[in-house]
Amino acid sequence: MKTLASPSFRPLYDQIKILITQSLIAGEWRPGDAIPSEIELANRFHVSQGTVRKAIDALAAENILVRRQGKGTFVASHSQERATTRFLRVSPDSASGEFPGSEFLSVTRARAPELTLRLLDLRAGASIHIIRRLLKFAGKPAILDEIHLPSSLFKGLDESVMRSHKGSFYGYLEGQFGITMIRAEERIKAVAADAVHAELLHVQQGAPLLCVDRVAYTYGDRPVEWRRGLCVTEECSYINEVT
Amino acid sequence: MKTLASPSFRPLYDQIKILITQSLIAGEWRPGDAIPSEIELANRFHVSQGTVRKAIDALAAENILVRRQGKGTFVASHSQERATTRFLRVSPDSASGEFPGSEFLSVTRARAPELTLRLLDLRAGASIHIIRRLLKFAGKPAILDEIHLPSSLFKGLDESVMRSHKGSFYGYLEGQFGITMIRAEERIKAVAADAVHAELLHVQQGAPLLCVDRVAYTYGDRPVEWRRGLCVTEECSYINEVT
DNA sequence: GAGTGGTCTAGACCACCCC
DNA sequence: GGGTGGTCTAGACCACTCT
Predict the structure, then answer these.
(1) Using the CA of B71, which nucleotide's C1' is the nearest one?
(2) A4: closest CA among A42, A61, A51, A38?
(3) Contact A94/B187 with Cβ under 8 angstroms?
(4) What is the second-level CATH architecture of the domain A12-75?
(5) Looking at the DSSP assignment, which residues form a beta bridge with residue B140?
């Protein structure tokens, strides 16, 4: 089982990785499911277990799959306790990492603005859902989010269902629409609060806020969400590891 | 070559990884040097090449070693073109990633304040160097840094040598003191510029700034630098990938 | 051609989980 | 006990770099 033409050589484990990713995109295995064992996959793809292992290792390193010794390999899910807070890099300076309270301010539809259009790779005139919400740490307003989701991918997004959902927002999207976020790119600036922000976040107008712009991607590096978060950082910080 | 006691089992490749790290700490190989080949290391440690390979893979994933096919495995260095900007997560919104100009404002010695003491794991009363500098993008002030370094580790830190150093600050520390930064933890807030910041950064007093606090670590996860950067983000952003 | 890292395989055995 | 992932090994061969 080898055809290693020299120009544009692609390792087998890389091809296996792509095949597994395609099964994930196709929904062959859903978040939380176990995928077939390494031996089964090796048989299916006609490669050795070691090659499958290397492909799975790569996907596990990207938090797309989760290995559990003795049990199997599972599709990462936002409803797993471990993952609910993975994308929330802001946390209170003191006190434990309680899950923040979420208050939805509005859910509307609109044509995507130019920025969203470009970043989510949408065709001109595309419709999006716009969700505005307020996150609170220990009851105090902390983050004001504006979230843009393409209507085509999130058909029938329902405000009342969303409100009543327990757990993280991405957990809701995963359960309701079968779309799992696997990574995001963020750009952060410091801005001054305008009158609207100030009132909602209980700060003075002109107060410094973190402005976190995010594009989130699902399987196959497909961008599916844009959001802007405005964050009061008097009692919390954006935490990051640089490697 | 195996002694796999059940309780507190430690894989061989993990032990090899520690041995390699210890050689790095001991300075057996310097940044930019090639380390011995996988086969040589396998012989030295009495394990198979595959086990050495896995240890090196882990260190390469942490940017401590750099593999180059056909040539060897090298100790990562801050003077390598690739790495000079690795820890600088702020970059201009438009224009290419030019290396920012650096202007040193002052270099002093002092007793470490409580915060630095605690974060760098120093004993009470320890002396530090305090370096204040201004980074500029395209000639415009962008980041005001205050850097704390333990005097004990950076003996004879020389202002004029530092000023004349070409390349990154960490490249200077590596070349001059043999201390290589391998990772850092950052905490980010939005703050308002005070009078001093405002003048140096050419902004209005009260203007929003990013405040980036960093602890940087060298081999063996030893904290050796604390710094605070205040950044004007009108024309640049802190960029981060969340995975 | 010699030496390096990179891929792939096959097999043995260990650690963990659950029935 | 049987299944799963995890470790370790030995060997064959490929891709890349330099001489």
Answers:
(1) C4
(2) A51
(3) no
(4) Orthogonal Bundle (1.10)
(5) B137
- In this complex, the nucleotide whose C1' atom is nearest to the CA atom of residue A34 is D4
State whether A186 and B243 contact (CB < 8 Å): no
In our burial notation (b when 16+ CB lie closer than 10 A, e otherwise), range A17-54 reads beebbebbeeeebebeeebbebeebbeebebeeebbbb
Q: Is residue B139 predicted with pLDDT exceeding 50?
A: yes
Please write down the HEC assignment for all residues of A72-114. Answer: EEEECCCCCHHHCCCCCCEEECCCCCCCCEEEEEEEEEEECCH
The 10s digit of each residue's pLDDT in A17-70 is 999 999 999 999 999 999 999 999 999 999 999 999 999 999 999 999 999 999
**Nearest one of B218, B212, B80, B108 to B153, comparing CA atoms:** B218
Size of interface A-B (CB pairs under 8 A): 100
Cβ of residue B38 lies below 7 Å from strand C: yes
* For chain A, domain boundaries: 12-75, 81-238
What's the rounded Cα separation, in Å, for the pair B210 and B101?
19
Within 13 Å of residue B136, how many CA atoms lie on the same side as its CB?
12
Residues of A in contact with B186 (CB under 8 A): 239-242
Q: Is the CB of A73 under 7 A from strand C?
A: no
Share of chain B above pLDDT 90, in %: 84
A63: closest chain B residue by CA: B243
> For residue B206, how far is the Cα from the chain centroid?
31
Residue B38 has pLDDT above 70, yes or no: yes
Closest Cα in chain B to A238: B188
Strand-pair category, B236-242 with A183-192: antiparallel
CATH T-level fold of B81-238 = Chorismate lyase (3.40.1410)
The residue type of A134 is L
Torsion of CA A105, A107, A110, A112, to 10 degrees: 80
Contact A142, A236 (CB under 8 A): yes
* 3-class secondary structure, B64: coil
Cα(A41)–Cα(A82) distance, rounded to whole angstroms?
26
CA-based R_g, chain B, Å? 20
Measured in Å, how far apart are chain A's first and last C-alpha atoms?
Answer: 37
Q: What CA–CA distances, in Å, run from B191 to A132, A136, B198, B205? A: 24, 20, 12, 11
- B81-238 and B12-75 share a CATH fold: no
Closest CA to B39 of B31, B30, B48: B48
